[in-house]
Amino acid sequence: MKVLGLFLVLGLSIGAGMFYWNSRTFEAQAVPQSYKVLDDLENKGIYQGEELILRDLDGKVISLSSLKGKVVILSFWATWCEPCVEEFPSFLKLLDEYPEKVVLIAISHDYEEKDVREFVEAFKGYRKNMILTMDKEKALSKAFGVDRLPEGFIFNKEGKLQKKIIGIQDWATPNAIEFFKAL
Questions:
Q1: In the Cβ-directed half-sphere of 162, how many Cα atoms lie within 13 Å?
Q2: 139 φ, ψ (degrees, to nearest 5)
Q3: Is the same domain home to 99 and 57?
Q4: 133 and 151 in a common domain
Q5: Is there a single domain that holds both residue 3 and residue 78?
Q6: Distances (CA, A) of 28 to 15, 17, 23, 33
Q7: Per-residue pLDDT tens for 83-127?
Q8: N-terminal to C-terminal alpha carbon distance within the chain
């Protein structure tokens, strides 16, 4: 009888352990929120659902839907981010190549607008097709699943995500120019 009780306790312990392990394993395998964000951006685009409203450094309100028909790059960056500084001149070349087609929304992680303004002025970087905005509270970064800088999202004219880029990118290579020409 003791042996039967021992087997019963052992069996229940093993069963409970397997149940616990399976429940933890499936939690760990759940799709991260950032993947869901990417799926929505690929399938629905940025013009579906809740309207994204931005305020540029001059206080002008910009709705993302007003950019429909343009290729939009959302770039998360900061003036203190060395790779961001390194890639900035290539953004300017790309913007100069496609002034009517491509719009860059440069979303800064800096805390001071003055730092962003001085940075852009140092590169003579103001362009008609560049919108500078701040993400001091990191709300946009969280919404887009951004966890490092620089990070960029390229959307076609219909607002569908074409590419997500993590890390430094040379935006003015012949391949990059051709990529944007095809969009």
A1: 15
A2: -65, -45
A3: yes
A4: yes
A5: no
A6: 20, 17, 9, 13
A7: 999 999 999 999 999 999 999 999 999 999 999 999 999 999 899
A8: 76
Asked if pLDDT for residue 130 goes beyond 80, the answer is yes
11-26, pLDDT tens digit by residue?
A: 656 655 556 555 554 4
DSSP string, the chain: -HHHHHHHHHHHHHHHHHHHHHHHHHHHTSPPHHHHHHHHHHHT-SSSSSPPEEEBTT--EEEGGGGTTSEEEEEEE-TT-HHHHHHHHHHHHHHHH-TTTEEEEEEE--S-HHHHHHHHHHTT---TTEEEEE-TT-HHHHHTT--SSSEEEEE-TTS-EEEEEES---TTSHHHHHHHHH-
Residue 167: give its domain's CATH number: 3.40.30.10
Residue 89: predicted pLDDT: 97
**Residue 6 CA to its chain's centroid (Å):** 56
Q: What is the pLDDT of residue 133?
A: 97
> pTM here?
0.78
For residue 20, what are the domain limits?
1-30
Q: What mean pLDDT do residues 151-173 have?
A: 94
How far is Cα 45 from Cα 35, in angstroms, rounded to an integer? 14
- Location of structure tokens 């790779």: 83
